[in-house]
Here is the input.
Amino acid sequence: MKYSDRINVIKGIGEKTEKVFQKLGIETVQDLIEHYPRGYEEFQKPVPIAELREGETFTIEAVLFGSLTLRRVRNLKIINGKVKDSSGSINLTWFNMPFLQKTLRTGTYYIFRGKVIRKNGVLVIEQPAIYQKQDYYKLLNILQPIYPLTEGLTNGVVTKSIRQALSDLDFAKDYIPKKVAKEFMLMDRTKAIKEVHFPKDRSSMMKARKRLVFDEFFLYSLALRHLKEQKAKLKTKYRMEERPECNRLINSFPYKLTKAQLRVWQEIKKDLCSNYGMNRLVQGDVGSGKTVLAILSLLLAVKNGYQASMMVPTEVLAKQHYRSLMDMLDQFGVNICLLVGSMTAKEKREAYERIKNHEVDIIVGTHALIQEKVEYASLGLVITDEQHRFGVKQREALMSKGGQPHVLVMSATPIPRTLAIILYGDLDISIVDELPAMRLPIKNCVVGTNYRPNAYRFIDKQVALGRQAYVICPMVEESEQMEAENVIDYTETLKEALAPGVTIEYLHGKMKPKEKNDVMERFANGEISVLVSTTVVEVGVNVPNATVMMVENAQRFGLAQLHQLRGRVGRGEYQSYCIFVCDSNSKEAWERLDILNKSNDGFFIAGEDLRLRGPGDIFGIRQSGSMEFKMADIFTDAELLKAAAEAVKSLQDNEVYRIFEENPYLEEKILSQKNTL
Ligand code: ADP
Ligand code: MG
Here is the structure.
């Protein structure tokens, strides 16, 4: 078996399984063995039912008494059963596993393992795994990998496939020069890969993980060095000059720019009006007002006779930016066009034509923008918003359009400056470190589920005042489908719970882009008062009239993500409120959420979250919204990141050259890393 072989060389992976793996981006043996566990299960001895506590995973050995009952809620089939041991009894619940009614026998002892939660005041184990005693005891004290999955793929299949691949492979490609590996006392890479999937014990797994994290950071830093050297100090073809329209635009805003905004605008202008290309990152917390900086830059480029584009990660956001651009730039006779995936082929073709002929000046869009078909007449500036959602490659593709346009990237990811300098090593950095003054600070509260009726009354009141609200439904890890059903169910409940006549709509990841846009647009126009949603509203959306953000099951989200969600309100002149509903009695959960109560500062929150999780908790809640490496976490692994960056910096040019020469596909590999940079 070779690294580059397609995964169907592995026994048991047929056409169907191959397709499912593809959904996770796994095509080759290499992709497969680099599909690392997201955590491990450690199987412990069963405990007496009387000792179960809420919020943790437990194993019990118990006998089923009475029969299993089946209930249907919408298209969810819910099975309930009751089991006991000598110390007590507990209810068990399974979803969509109706066959259990046939396979589980009353009066028989089984081992059940699952998370204990509280429902309607009593403890239940939800979706417990079921084992025969003898099978379970074989698993004791072994770290079992838990893999990221997708619909149609079980942990068992992934585990088996990886085990196969590893047993057939005798070495893994190693990119790290020997002297570096030695200096940092890194485990051999082949061994590390094997150990991380099937660790001998915890300490060996930690060493293996260290090696693989180091590798990721090393390659990443190498990529940056490579990028930077390639575009170092290129004279630009798009040198600009100051234009009076920009000040006119600033004067037309209904507010004064903050000092931070003015400072960053100066920095951008200086770049654009110099002889060299701009490569700048604008960092600023949610709500700091980055969009106007983008708009000013676009206007400057256009008034210098160039085209400019703005790329965003979601269609909803693209449309929103499109609207604000139309509003603000109408007075300057600028032609703007939208380019998104949901447009018809004809509409796209027309847009391409107009772009090519320079009939449009500004192009706003999603990835469709960077499709090959788009040819620009004279692209002088490229802006990407919510940068952390894009890969290096996507940005490269956009940059290579036309001859090296100026590049401005904007991100709200709260990373400390020291890390930002490494992670965005090829860019200059500007920070918008001030929120607009007129903002009333958001009022926060962390509440239990019994507070819900009050929250609903509160939303009613805000809606009666003409305001709007978001309600974020719990994350469902199992599948997007279940998450969608959840949102729909919740919306139904809410229709009963809120005052009659309040317009409620929902938004989830499974909806078609057009449906999503439609809902978002109506919410933005104020036609919808309450929007029930998954975290799809998390990035960038701006509806200043919305004043309530209620997050269900807040304890399940990362703090940085909750902070992003909170950033959806408090964007206008009205007092805004955030209600975090905590559906857990665990003290840690409340403590963690309380951090949001204490601070509105993204950096501080990320830091506190890290401190609470502790660096030992390496597989804790992933901060969605921060960069996603396969294994590394920029917060918890910050020290390794610094070390790897140092190591790359210390390499001689010829050593770097040699790494690339010996690994002809490395460049491609580095550039195709998802979600990094
Ligand atoms: P973000 O930095 O999160 O992208 P936005 O650019 O979307 O933030 O700005 C958030 C809101 O603040 C918008 O409604 C915008 O019009 C408003 N805004 C931007 N700058 C200022 C300012 N200097 N004073 C008051 N409001 C501002
Ligand atoms: Mg924004």
